[in-house]
Design goal:
alpha+beta, Arc Repressor Mutant, subunit A, 3-stranded antiparallel sheet, 4 helices, about 60% helix, WH_DNA-bd_sf, PadR family transcriptional regulator, Tscrpt_reg_PadR_N
Length: about 110
C-alpha cells in the first residue's frame, strides 16, 4: 500500500472545505489562497486549485471579480456567494461531527 497516495486522497477530501473556509472572512486571489493553505501545511499546486475554483464557481458557491494590480496584470478575486456561505456552514457541522468521531476512535486505548 502506498502511504503517499492515501495521504494525498485524505488532503483532497478536505481541500474544498479548506478553500471555502479561507474565503469565509474576505475575498482572495489564487496566490493568497495557496499561501494560506501552504502556511497551514496543506500543500496544493496551481494545477489543482484552478479547476477546483472553477468547479466551485460553476456550482454557485463562489463568484469572482477582476481587480487591477499595482504590480502586474489584473487579479481575479474569489468570494463566497450566499449559497457558498450556507454550504460552508453545512460542511463545518459535518466536519465537526466527523472529526469528533475520528478522534474518539483513534484516541481509544
Amino acid at each position: 500500500m502506498n502511504i503517499e497516495n492515501t495521504k494525498a486522497q485524505m488532503r483532497k477530501g478536505v481541500l474544498e472545505f479548506c478553500i471555502l473556509s479561507v474565503l469565509k472572512e474576505k475575498d482572495a486571489y489564487t496566490s493568497e489562497i495557496l499561501d494560506t493553505l501552504k502556511n497551514a501545511k496543506l500543500l496544493v499546486v496551481e494545477g489543482t486549485i484552478y479547476p477546483l475554483l472553477t468547479r466551485l464557481k460553476n456550482d454557485g458557491l463562489l463568484n469572482y471579480r477582476w481587480e487591477e494590480s499595482t504590480s502586474g496584470p489584473p487579479r481575479k478575486y474569489y468570494g463566497l456567494t450566499e449559497i457558498g456561505q450556507t454550504f460552508l456552514k453545512e460542511l463545518d457541522g459535518t466536519w465537526t461531527e466527523l472529526s469528533d468521531a475520528v478522534n474518539l476512535i483513534t484516541n481509544q486505548k
